[in-house]
Amino acid sequence: PFEDAPLKFVQLVQLLRAASYENIDAIWAQFKAEPDFRHWILDAVPAIGTPDALQFIKEKFLAGDITTAEGEG
Fold it and tell me: What is the pLDDT along the chain (73 residues), one digit of tens a residue?
């Protein structure tokens, strides 16, 4: 199961690149309390590289929803 993790991560990034801020925020709201999912999302969002992704990180950091360490990915 873990050997396909890099491929799954790339697929997640590719899917999130097409997502709006609202989509990313909805995924976050659903999975932020799950440590493994939270980690994957916070690793993927900076790799997305879209204005919506940057807005997401900025707003979550300013709201205190993510820590400095988490925001650095």
Answer: 678 989 999 999 999 999 999 999 999 999 999 999 999 999 999 999 999 999 999 999 999 999 878 766 5
The string of DSSP codes covering 25-56 is HHHHHHHTTSHHHHHHHHHHHHHH-SHHHHHH
Structure pTM?
A: 0.84
* Domain residue ranges of the chain, discontinuous segments joined by +: 2-71
